[in-house]
Amino acid sequence: MRGLRRSLKLMIDIDISKVNKQALRILEDLESAGYDAYLVGGCLRDLLLGYVPKDIDIATNALPEEAQKAIRRSRVIGRRFKLVLAHRGVEQYEISTFRRNAYLDEEPSDHPQGDNIYGTLEEDAWRRDYTFNALFYNPQSKKFFDPTGGLRDIEKRRVQMIGDPDQRLVEDSIRILRAVRHAHKLDCHIPASLRKKFSEHAPELLKSALPRRREEFIKILRVYSPFHCFLDMADLGILEAILPSLHPFFQKKQSLQNIRRCWAQLRKKDRSEMEPTEIFTWILIPCLSALEPDPKKWYELSRHPEWTQLMKEELGMFGYEMTDFTQVCELTPQILEMEQYSKRSEKRQSSFLRHRVWPLALDIMYNLKYLSTSQYSDWVREFKNKL
Fold this sequence. Notes:
Layout: H1 2-12, H2 21-32, E1 37-40, H3 42-48, E2 57-60, H4 64-70, E3 74-77, E4 83-88, E5 91-97, H5 121-127, E6 136-138, E7 143-145, H6 150-155, H7 165-171, H8 174-185, H9 192-201, H10 210-220, H11 226-235, H12 238-242, H13 253-264, H14 276-291, H15 298-302, H16 305-314, H17 319-335, H18 338-342, H19 346-353, H20 358-367, H21 373-386
Parallel strand pairs: 2-5
Antiparallel strand pairs: 1-2, 1-6, 3-4, 4-5, 6-7
C-alpha cells in the first residue's frame, strides 16, 4: 500500500497538458471500444522529469487488428512485430499490444512468426529494457502502473536495467547505446555495476545491425552535450569496439580540444531537425582538422580508404552523405580565400554560394576558428547580397 500511495503522489505531478491531444483521443477511441489503453514508456519518463515528450507511444490489450478497427485512420504494420500506426496530420502514433516472453514449456511452433506473443500489462513491462521505460498511465481513469520500480529510479535519476544485464545485453546490445544516451539526455547516472556490464558487453555491439547503431549515433549527437556522451563511450570501451577509427581522437589532447570546441557550438543549434549529413560532418571535421591542420589537404584525406571505412562501415553513412562530407572538405579551403572568390565571374560566384553544403562548410570553418568573426560576417553579407 505504501508503494501505491507513493505512485499516486507522483502521478499527480504528471502534466498531461504536454501530451498531444490527438494521442489522448486515440486512448479514448480504444476505451470506447472496450479495451484498456495507456501512455507508456519514454513519454511518461520525460513527463515525470519535466520534459516535453517528443514521441508518444500507446500500449493496449487490444490485438493489432482490433485496435485498427477501433482507431480511425490507422493501419496494421510489421510482420515480426505487429503494431498499429495512426497518422494525425504530420504526427504519427504507434499503438502496440501487450507482449510477453514465451514460457519455458512452450514450443516455438505454438507461436506465430516473430515477436507477436501477446500477454498482460505486467508481462509487457518486464520485457522492456529499463525501469523508467516500463511505466503505464491512463489520463482518463487515472490508473498508473509501475511494476518494475521505475518511479523509484526516476526519483534517484538512475538508469536501471530490467532483469539480468548479461542476458538482456546479449539479447540486444543496442541497449548499451540507449542507456548512455538516456543518461546524458536526462541527467541520470548509470550505477557502477551496470557500467561494468556495458564495458564487458561492448564487443557485442558489433553483432547489432549497422543501421540501428547509426540511428543511435544520430540521436546521441542531438543530446545537449554530445562531447561528454562520446567521452563516456570512450571510457566504457564502446568507441574502441564499434568506432575504432574514431576512438584514437578521444585519447589525444589536441583532437579532444578541437572536438570540444566545435561540439560546444552544437548546444546553440536546434538539432531536432538537423540533417544526418550535418550531424556526421560535425563529428568528422574536428577529427580531420586535428589530424591535418591545413584545410587544403582535407579533401584528399577525406577520400582515403581509412576515412571511407569510418564513414561507411562504422558510422553507417549513406553514399550521398559521404559525398556531401567530401564536398565540405573541398569547399573549406576556398572559403579561406575570399580574394580569389572576388576575382570570379558573377555566375561562378553565385554557383559557389549556392552550393548545397556551402552554409555548413562556412559554419564549420568559423567554429573551428579558421575564420575570424569579421571574415565570417563578410561571407554572410556576401551570401545575402548575391542570393
